[in-house]
C-alpha cells in the first residue's frame, strides 16, 4: 500500500495522462520509474511533434518519494526532469541559450512552488562521418534538473515540465498562434 502523499501524486499523474492533454503537439505516456532512487517512484515520458509528425523534443519526468526525506530534499518529494530538444544551429551557437533555458524552467515552476532546484544544460553538435557522412549535422539542447515541490499537488510541476519541453522545441506559448512562415525579404 502506498503512503497517502504518494498515492495522491499517483492519482494526479493518472488524471493528467487520462485527461485531454496540455497541448495537441505533446504526447504523454506512463513509463517505468527507476526503483533504486527512492522507496516510491513514478515516471512519465513525453514527446513534442511538429505538424509533419517529426519528434522535435522528448523528455522524462520522475517523481520520487521517500517518507523520511533525503539529503537535499526539502520534503518527502523530489522531481527529476530531463528534456532533449532539437535546436536550430544559430540558436545552439548562442552562448546564452543555457541560461535562457534555465530561466524558462524557473519561470514555469514559479506558480507551482519549488525549492532546492539544481541541474545542468548541455548544448551538443553531432557530426556524421564515414558511411553516415551525407547526414546533416544536428544540434540539440539537453536539460537535466531536479527540485523539491513546496506543496503536495504535482499538477503544476508536470505542467511546468510540459511547458519547458514545448518551449525548447520552439513552440509558441500555449494559446498563442505562431506567425506563418514568410519568404525572406518581404516587408510588413
UniProtKB/TrEMBL annotation:
Domain of life: Bacteria
Any single Pfam family the record assigns to this protein: DUF3000
Matches recorded under InterPro entries: DUF3000
Record protein name field: DUF3000 domain-containing protein
Organism of derivation: Actinomadura montaniterrae
